[in-house]
Amino acid sequence: MKIKKNRLILFVFALIGFGFYGVHEYFRSNKDVSGLKENFRMRADDMIQAFATNETVAEKKFIGKIIVVQGKLKEVEKDEKGYYTLVLGDTGTASSVRCLIDTLHTNDIKAMQKGDSVVLKGMLVGYNADATGLLGSDIQLNRCMRMNEK
Amino acid sequence: MKKQLASLVICILLFAITVNAQDKFFTKKGKIYFDASAKMEKVEATNRAVISVIDIKSGNIQFAVMMKGFEFEKALMQEHFNENYVESDKFPKAEFIGQVTNNAEINYSKDGEYTAKVKGKMQMHGELKEVEATGIVIIKNGKIELRSEFSILLSDFKISIPALVKENISDQTKISVDCLMDPLKN
Q1: Which chain B residues are Cβ-neighbours of A85 within 8 angstroms?
Q2: What is the DSSP track for B171-185?
Q3: Of the candidates B38, B34, B35, B43, which has an alpha carbon nearest to the alpha carbon of residue B170?
Q4: What is the signed CA dihedral for A30, A33, A39, A44, rounded to 10 degrees?
Q5: Using the beta-carbon criterion (under 8 Å), do B75 and A30 form an inter-chain contact?
Q6: Quick one: closest CA in B to A141, which residue?
Q7: Nearest-angstrom CA–CA distance, A76 and A99
Q8: Mind listing the pLDDT tens digit for each residue in A44-60?
Q9: pTM
Q10: Domains plus CATH for chain B?
Q11: Which residues share a beta bridge with A4?
Q12: Helix axes A55-62, A44-53, angle to 10 degrees
């Protein structure tokens, strides 16, 4: 009788535990990248080169990974809704690394200007090889934040 | 005389390049929002890095979007979207290449709102499908804004919804596009 009761208590606790885990998982939001370990650290120009050399290999290696990228700011863009994108790369070429700034970290980049050296951390979400020959090829990083490094 | 002729040719060439450049408008900060909500659940995501180019002379238009760039409110939903539905590791990008079929009815040099009909081919999840949509072209202060809302069927792109979550995700997905485009300068 006592064993049966203990099993029942254990079952109820396990059920509550699974319930909490399920609810937590269901409502989990995307993690701030500041708490995530970097997978790669690269210069913006080297990253552009890696994708230009072999898009398929680079996509397999970098997409979905947390990247720390260093480079010079080509452009600081603010869209009509107030979202910031920092564009890194060589001003002599149209290709760039475009870093969409996480709204949690917007205040850290507001003072940044074209030509500044910057270190950013974010998740690499894709590469668009320019088929038009007009726009330049772009590597895109989302949920980016500025690192306190030069 | 030769010098003058050379200058004239250079001027004509520069003018031709400028005119050609002004025929094209682009953005890399366009927005796409999709809604595949069904009875039981809200399934929505936004991508704010849509790349788009329009040639106002020919009406040719292109869009490209990174699938992993869609952001959901819930991380679990975003993971399922990428891993189980659109398989973004295998198919990282979606593209649309088409044409504004009533391009002649739009006066791109005059501020105003115009209805645009777009027809073309959309590639997603490795499938190519013809898509038609109606939208609005807003010409203001030398910029072009494109807005459109249309629906697609996920099944057309071989994105299957397991029977277990049929009540949560709709096959018919509403897509909203909003791209504010600047003139392309060479």
Answers
A1: 28-29, 49
A2: EEEEEEEEEEEEEPP
A3: B38
A4: 120
A5: yes
A6: B69
A7: 10
A8: 999 999 999 999 999 99
A9: 0.84
A10: 25-183 (2.40.128.110)
A11: none
A12: 130
Full DSSP string of B156-170: GGT----GGGTTTEE
A24-51 pLDDT, tens digit per residue, is 767 777 788 999 999 999 999 999 999 9
Nearest to B45 by CA among B53, B55, B57, B36: B36
**Chain A interface, Cβ < 8 Å to B:** 25-31, 59, 63-64, 77, 79-81, 83, 85, 98, 100, 123, 125-128, 132, 134-135, 138, 140, 142
Q: Is residue A145 a contact partner of residue B81, using CB atoms and an 8 Å limit?
A: no
Distance CA B82, CA B118 (A): 28
Helix (H/G/I), strand (E/B), else coil: B57: coil
Number of Cβ within 10 Å of residue A94's Cβ equals 15
Q: Which of B31, B51, B76 sits opposite A25 (nearest CB)?
A: B76
ipTM of the complex: 0.83
Helices (H), A28-148: 44-53, 55-62
Phi then psi for B182, rounded to 5 degrees? -100, 155
Using an 8 Å CB-CB cutoff, list chain A residues near B53.
132, 134-135
Of B121, B137, B140, the C-alpha closest to B129 is B121
> Which residue has better confidence, B40 or B66?
B66
Q: Which of B95, B74, B70, B179 is CA-nearest to residue A123?
A: B70
Mean per-residue pLDDT, A55-71: 95
Task: Select from B65, B66, B70 the residue whose CB has the most chain A CBs within 10 Å, as the one to mutate to test that interface.
Answer: B66
Q: How far apart are CA B144 and CA A19, in angstroms?
A: 50
